[in-house]
Amino acid sequence: MDEDVDLWLPRKAGRKRKGQSATKMATLGRFSKVLLRSSLTQTRRQLAAAAAEGGEHSAKTWKILTFIVALPGVAVCMLNTFLKEQHHEHTQPEFVPYSHLRIRSKRFPWGDGNKTLFHNPHVNALPDGYEGHDE
């Protein structure tokens, strides 16, 4: 097979043989492993030094950030959601009986067998429509 490929590819001046390129690739692989290993060792040393120096200082910083930034941020998000929900109208979307949705090939093992485990009658439609609506 290799001879067939060599017949179709013209030889260029200075083109190296397969053995030489494989040796270069192996050397490059070993060199990259050495660089990666030294980089990981240096990173571990830096992290260990940082942990040994200011552990109590960093804990205090994170505690302050939690109470000054994180908790008020969560409170503002909760307030925003609550206020937007106050002005939102709760209307059900129109039921369209698509044939590929709400397929019940087997009954559910709980309840009446037609409703999912976390069924919400205001949001989730059954195969024949929403509950409590005679349309």
UniProtKB/TrEMBL annotation:
Highest taxon listed in the record's lineage: Eukaryota
Thylakoid listed as a keyword: no
GO biological process: mitochondrial electron transport, cytochrome c to oxygen
Membrane topology recorded in Swiss-Prot or TrEMBL: Single-pass membrane protein
Localization in the cell: Mitochondrion inner membrane
Presence of keyword Calcium: no
Any one cellular-component term (Gene Ontology): mitochondrial inner membrane
Any GO MF annotation of the entry: oxidoreductase activity
PROSITE patterns: COX6A
Keywords noted in UniProt: Membrane, Mitochondrion, Mitochondrion inner membrane, Oxidoreductase, Transit peptide, Transmembrane, Transmembrane helix
Protein family: Belongs to the cytochrome c oxidase subunit 6A family.
Protein name: Cytochrome c oxidase subunit
Organism expressing this protein natively: Oryzias sinensis
